Amino acid sequence: MPPKGARKKKRAAVGDPNDAEGMYAWMVRYLEAMRVRNYSERTVENREMYLGFFIAWCDARSLTRPQEVTKPILDRYQRHLFHMRKTNGKPQSFSSQLQRLTPVRAYFKWLTRQNVLLWNPASEIELPRQEKRLPKHVLTIDDAERVMDVPDVGDAIGLRDRAILETLYSTGIRRMEVMNLLVYDLDAERGTLMVRQGKGKKDRMVPIGERAIAWIARYVSDARPQLVMPPDEGVLFLTQEGEVLSPNRLTQLVRDYVNAAEVGKTGACHLWRHTCATLMLEGGADIRYIQEMLGHVELSTTQIYTQVSIRRLKAVHALTHPSAKLDRPTKSSTTAANGTSDETAEAHPPLVAYREHEDTSGSGVPGATALLEALDAEADEEHEDERLER
């Protein structure tokens, strides 16, 4: 398994750690049970963080054991989250409130199953409704090219950063997935990238464009040897110290390049995920293929387990993603990708039949709005993680 990015040191105990029946002691057991059930360490750490907030809130009100928590107390905590303000004076988003409440509900459900509680006080918590918002910023093809031109590829770090940007743009993979890539995860001959242990501990193979492959190859041959330090564990993208990029470091370097390009838009790693999905949609890709590429198991409330072969997925990517080929896209190539070319339509009829990107067939496949809403919810989660990691 690839080495993970740098994580924070062990969190301080909250509440009374010496009380074997206290909320903190039971939280430690709950987290261990999650590890036994093969939850990812990042998920466990997030649960620990959010439960820590709740336990500290309870401790300030002299509530030290799970049996002392009732439904009205949980309602008070939910109102506390609603009225809580960030350091800039703005309220917590409903997505942030949901992130803090979900672990609390799961914790009390587990306690009830362990017979620590006779009944679950959190069973009737009404979670905030998720806002249905489309992404604020998505790069156009021209915007993306301007950002790509910012890194100074004459030095090792600039070359590494160009390869990172090209990877994000071409594949739309997540921040943590970029950090954990290994050198041998790229199959240049087949034009694929193996994403190992992505969200939900799932492996998947995604197509990657010729241009991104070329920049990665150049980085691996010219820049990575200057950065790597023995023992070489095979991590693809390294810091100047030869270490794995941390989440915040990767976010900041991508954000800096977007800002430096002065495209009038802001964002970091997730901006490229939005951009990849949006440009492929505009190019005529079917939602199912984009879903498979992004590693989404669920969109909206509909679960789809459509298995798409990597060969077919790669064909869709080549037809619809503007950076799939070495040459920069032209207006004519974009028109062809949009499905207006008779030759393209004849060769790939299922791809070009897709127009408004909404389900009109009754198949239950969600449309573009559901896809973009799912991406925006992911972005909220990533932004909350960034804020709490600072």
Task: Measure the end-to-end span.
Answer: 26 Å
Helix/strand class: mainly alpha
Beta-strand share of residues? under 5%
Enter the CATH topology name of the largest domain: hpI Integrase, Chain A
Largest sheet: 3 strands, antiparallel
Find the CATH superfamily of the largest domain.
Intergrase catalytic core
| Strand element count | 5
Task: Walk across the major sheet and give the strand order.
Answer: 1-2-3
CA radius of gyration is 23 Å
**What is the helix/strand order?**
HHHHHHHEEEHHHHEEHHHHH
Which class of the largest domain in CATH terms?
Mainly Alpha
Characterize the overall form.
elongated
Put simply, the count of helices is: 16
The figure for the number of domains is 2
Q: How does this model look, in words?
A:
With 390 residues, this protein is mainly α. It folds into two domains: 1-131, Orthogonal Bundle (DNA polymerase, domain 1), CATH 1.10.150.130; 141-389, Orthogonal Bundle (hpI Integrase, Chain A). It has 16 helices and five strands.
What topology does this entry show?
Blueprint: H1 23-36, H2 41-59, H3 71-83, H4 94-113, H5 141-148, H6 156-171, H7 175-179, E1 186-187, E2 192-195, E3 204-207, H8 210-227, H9 247-261, H10 269-283, H11 287-294, E4 298-299, E5 302-303, H12 310-320, H13 331-337, H14 342-347, H15 349-352, H16 368-389
Antiparallel strand pairs: 1-2, 2-3, 4-5
Helix pairs in contact: 1-2, 2-4, 5-9, 6-8, 6-10, 10-16
